[in-house]
């Protein structure tokens, strides 16, 4: 019996996930949790500045990022490692305007994409094809999120800086999102 209970050696096939992979996935969990919190802080800023459309978009986005975090946590636990609940902090609480918010979103999402690519590289280097396959969902998600952030920045650039233009952007943001997801 003792032999059956012995830990599976360095193999992660059907057993414990490679330690490097669980570390990388836990770092990704922390990043998704932080993303959720950063979007939440932005949503509060937008709502208190009167940008209700942008606030709706950001609150919804904060929920999505939390879902990204949970999906990773469940995967890590199911594969025999332990997901770490991350410590998160509030993002910046004030912005010059909507352009700064969306530039910051694009910068943040670009960083997340780089991190995801790093996890994918690591999966290949340790031959963990199961995690590699799982991570493809995140690769696709990042393509959409970066495209949406760029689209919204383009719209803001077209709108100019006056209050009337910002009002229209805020009113139309949900429509821009629908257009972007139809194209993706
Ligand atoms: Fe995410
Ligand atoms: Fe994201």
Short description:
By secondary structure, the chain is mainly alpha-helical.
Helices and strands in order, then pairings?
Blueprint: H1 2-5, H2 19-48, H3 52-78, H4 98-125, H5 129-159, H6 163-183
Helix pairs in contact: 2-3, 2-4, 3-6, 4-5, 5-6
The ligands bound in this entry are: fe (ii) ion
> So how many helices?
6
The count of β-strands is 0
Overall 3D shape: elongated
Query: What is the string of SSEs from the N terminus onward?
Result: HHHHHH
Oligomeric composition of the shown chains = single chain
- Helix-residue proportion: over 70%
Q: Remind me, CATH topology?
A: Ferritin
Average pLDDT level: 90
List the domain count as a whole number. 1
Structural class: mainly alpha
Describe this structure in words.
The protein is mainly α and 184 residues long. It has one domain (18-183): Ferritin. Helices cover 77% and strands 0% of the residues. The protein is built from 6 helices and no strands. The protein has helices spanning 2-5, 19-48, 52-78, 98-125, 129-159, 163-183. Helix 3 (52-78) runs parallel beside helix 6. The longest helix is centred in the last third of the chain and has 31 residues, at 129-159. The chain starts with a helix and ends with a helix. The structure holds fe (ii) ion (2 copies). Residues 32, 35, 65, 68, 112 line the site of one fe (ii) ion. Residues 35, 65, 109, 112, 145 line the site of one fe (ii) ion.
């Amino acid at each position: 019996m003792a032999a059956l209970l012995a830990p599976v050696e360095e193999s992660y096939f059907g057993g414990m996930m490679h330690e490097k992979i669980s570390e990388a996935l836990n770092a990704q969990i922390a990043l998704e949790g932080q993303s959720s919190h950063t979007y939440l802080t932005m949503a509060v800023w937008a709502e208190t500045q009167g940008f209700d459309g942008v606030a709706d978009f950001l609150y919804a986005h904060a929920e999505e990022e939390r879902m990204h975090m949970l999906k990773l946590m469940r995967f890590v636990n199911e594969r025999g490692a332990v997901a770490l609940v991350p410590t998160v902090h509030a993002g910046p609480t004030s912005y010059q305007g909507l352009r700064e918010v969306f530039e910051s979103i694009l910068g943040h999402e670009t960083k997340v994409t780089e991190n995801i690519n790093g996890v994918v590289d690591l999966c290949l280097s340790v031959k963990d094809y199961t995690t590699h396959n799982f991570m493809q969902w995140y690769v696709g998600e990042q393509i959409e999120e970066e495209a949406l952030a760029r689209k919204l920045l383009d719209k803001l650039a077209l709108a100019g800086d006056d209050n009337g233009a910002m009002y229209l952007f805020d009113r139309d943001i949900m429509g821009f999102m629908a257009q972007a997801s139809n194209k993706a």
